[in-house]
Amino acid sequence: MTMESTTKVTESTTSLILTSGASGRVNALLSLRAIKRLLMLVYTIILFLLLPLIRVRRRTMMVVGESDENVCQRKSLSSVSSPVKRNRRVYNVNSDDNEDDCKTVASKEIVVLKDFDVVTRRAISIKRITQDDDDDCDTVREASLFGNSRGETLFTQSWTPASVKVKGLVVLLHGLNEHSGRYNDFAKQLNANGFKVFGMDWIGHGGSDGLHGYVYSLDAAVNDLKAFIEKVLAENPGLPCFCFGHSTGGAIVLKAVLDPKIETRIQGVVLTSPAVGVQPSRPIFGVLAPIFSFLLPKYQFSAANKNGLTVSRDPDALIAKYSDPLVYTGSIRVRTGAEILRISSFLQERMSKITIPFFVLHGTADAVTDPNGSRRLYEKAASTDKSIKLYDGLLHDLLFEPEREVIRNDIIEWLTSRIK
Predict the structure, then answer these.
(1) Where are the transmembrane segments (predicted)?
(2) Engineered SS bond to 65: which of 46, 72, 108, 197, CB 3.0-4.6 Å?
């Protein structure tokens, strides 16, 4: 039992009375011409400060391949007929301290390719679905395009059980820089347990419209998710619906279900490594982020994550991720980073307003999103049905860790127990 004390502070308010002369000077300061001059001065100062940081960057995608056999290089280039120029770098992949379960890969070779445009990314997304080889025919996988209210086209897909009665729906939202197709195996496992799954690539990701890896507004992604949920429910009436969100996708899901219209139609949400406790790598980045995102929204800010972060202890999972041309591996863009900080701050301030049933899962060694953020979510949320599971030593991409089967089973058990 804890006791809280409240301290009342009395403040004195002083009224400022302006004479006609003072009023004139204030009006002059607020004139349009003066404001323009002030903005130009601020803009000049900011550009001066940015000069040491700004450099010309090519729009590139890093694809990881094995240096000895070039396995992943062949995979990434097999879907691109036109020749491309390549650069080579060394990318170290370590298996952490668990060498028995996950062998250390000493080094990998990065092939830097020209970034794919929307048409190419969408073609790759569709091709993968049509070529999905399911020998036992337990899943019907289909692609579709979804137009949002802003006139943009989003790539979506579905996984339907072919031999199991559908008892529930799961709307799946991927994390930053990835896409819904990465969860193909998980979706099929959900199918085997009676859940029909729907995935949506949010703007700037996978086969959806937008500059690859660029998010101009996470509020737009939230609105897109709401519209997609409404579409899924309209096409599948009478079935309980759940949402799954990973990392930034988890933050998008949480903000969507804060809307009472959505909350009342969703039976619960599952969140893996949600971005609810994200902090800038340096405090100054948080202060400057809103300014830079306005002035240089698409600038790739490599200093925000200079050395990169390992997201899985499984070297094969890392190779699969970074050899995937639909995964954005360039430096984070300024507006994208600012949007993540903004939605994380928004959720931190409103955790006590969350009432929907949820299950949050997080690895204690996650260096991308803070597991303490998930702890605070669990403690502060007003939900009467809430669960948390922290996995000791696991990293950010929980469903791609060596223990993925345990984590998938934990999720499926939670979902199944809430089907009426």
Answers:
(1) 34-54
(2) 72
Q: What value, to the nearest 5°, has the Cα angle with vertex 246 and ends 242 and 251?
A: 85
Residue 140 phi, psi dihedral angles, 5° rounding:
-105, 115
> What are 159's strand-pairing partners?
141, 197
Task: Output the furthest CA–CA distance in the chain (Å, rounded).
Answer: 85
The continuous run of DSSP H or E covering 346 comes out as: helix 334-349
- Domain of 119 in residue numbering reads as 105-417
- CATH of residue 123's domain is 3.40.50.1820
Tens digit of each residue's pLDDT (9 = 90 or more) over 405-418: 999 999 999 999 99
Domain-embedded: residue 270: yes
Tell me if 43 is assigned to some domain.
Answer: no
pLDDT, tens only, 62-93 = 333 333 333 333 333 333 333 333 333 333 34
* Residue-wise pLDDT tens digits, 95-129: 343 333 333 333 444 333 445 689 999 999 999 99
Q: How far is CA 98 from the centre of its chain?
A: 27
Q: Rounded CA gap, 214 and 321, in Å?
A: 18
Burial class (CB in 10 A: 0-12, 13-18, 19+), 5: exposed
- 189-243 residue pLDDT tens: 999 999 999 999 999 999 999 999 999 999 999 999 999 999 999 999 999 999 9
User: How far is it, in rounded angstroms, from Cα 93 to Cα 310?
Assistant: 8
DSSP for 282-331? SHHHHHHHHHHHHHSTT-B-GGGGSS-----S-HHHHHHHHT-TTS--SP
* Averaged confidence pLDDT in the chain: 77
Q: 348 φ, ψ to 5°?
A: -60, -35
Q: Is the pTM of this model over 0.85?
A: no
Sign, CA dihedral 401-354-368-62, equals: positive
CB proximity list for 267: less than 8 A, separation 6 or greater = 168, 240, 241, 242, 357, 418
User: How crowded is the C-beta side of 199, counted as CA atoms within 13 Å?
Assistant: 29
Q: Phi first, then psi: what are they for 258, rounded to 5°?
A: -70, -20
Asked, for residue 147, whether it belongs to a domain, the answer is yes
Q: Is the pLDDT of residue 332 over 70?
A: yes
Query: Above pLDDT 70, what percent of the chain?
Result: 65
Distance between CA 152 and CA 335 in Å, rounded?
Answer: 19
Overall domain count for the chain? 1
